[in-house]
C-alpha cells in the first residue's frame, strides 16, 4: 500500500482539506472525515494535493477548481461525494448526464467534458438545467448550435471553454493551436449567449494523461499557456479572464504547477472506471 492509499484507508485525519474554488468544502475537515466513504476521502486527499501544488507554484488553491469526473460511476457514489460538500462534477456522455442529473441535487455544477455533437446539444441543455460549463467547444458549428439552443430554451448564458488539441494527434478532438484565437473570437463576438471562460486540453485517447500532454513550447510555458497569451492579446483581456483546464488523475499536480485553474479528476476520486464487456456474439 502506498502513502496515498494508506491515508485514504485511515481517513486522513491528520490533514485539513483545503477549501477550493467557490468554497465548495463547507464542512470541517475533521467532521467530514469521520463520515467519509472511500471516494469522499480520496477527494479530500486530491484537494490537499491541489493545495500543495498551488503553494509550490506560488498560487492560491482558492482559484483552482476540481471537477470530479463521475463518468460510468453510480448516482449513489456521486451522492456520497456530494454529501461530503463537493458540488462540481463532470460527465462525458450526453445520455449518461441526462439520466443522472435529475436524480441528483440541482445545486450541482455540472461540467460537460466529452465530445459534443450538434444534434445532442438540445437534449443536453434541456435535460440538465444546472449545466454550468461545456468544456469542449472545438469548432464554430458547435458554438453556434450551443448559442442557438441557449436562446431557444431561455436559460442563462452558458459558460464554455474552447478545447485545444495541444498534442497534434489526429485522433484527438480540439482546435489546432493555430486556430484557437479565431475560434475564441467567434465565441466571444458572435455568440452572445455563450460566456467564454478559458481553454481546455485533453489527455491521451485512452485518457492516461502524461506530462507530454502539456507540450512545453518554451521553457516553463505549455502550449495551452501560449494559446492563452495569444487569446488575451487578441481579445484585450487579462490572463485571469482566461482559465486553463488541464490535468487529470495522472498529472494534475504538474498541471496546477503549470498554471491550470480547472483540473478534471476521475479515477483518483472514484476508482478505476469499469466498462461493460463487449458481447462476443
Ligand atoms: C476529458 C476528460 N478529462 C478528465 C477525465 C478524467 O480522467 P482520470 O480518470 O484520468 O482522472 C476524463 C475521463 O474520461 C476525460 O474524458
Automatic annotation (TrEMBL):
The keyword Nuclease does not apply. InterPro entries: Ala_racemase_N, PLP-binding_barrel, PyrdxlP_homeostasis. One of its GO terms (molecular function) is pyridoxal phosphate binding. It holds the Pfam family Ala_racemase_N. Residues 1-19 have a biased composition (Basic and acidic residues). Residues 63-273 form the Alanine racemase N-terminal domain. Residues 1-33 are annotated as: Disordered. Its cofactor is pyridoxal 5'-phosphate. Keywords: Pyridoxal phosphate. The modification N6-(pyridoxal phosphate)lysine is found at residue 71. CDD domains: PLPDE_III_YBL036c_euk. Belongs to the pyridoxal phosphate-binding protein YggS/PROSC family. Pyridoxal 5'-phosphate (PLP)-binding protein, which may be involved in intracellular homeostatic regulation of pyridoxal 5'-phosphate (PLP), the active form of vitamin B6. This is Pyridoxal phosphate homeostasis protein. The lineage of its organism: Eukaryota, Viridiplantae, Streptophyta, Embryophyta, Tracheophyta.
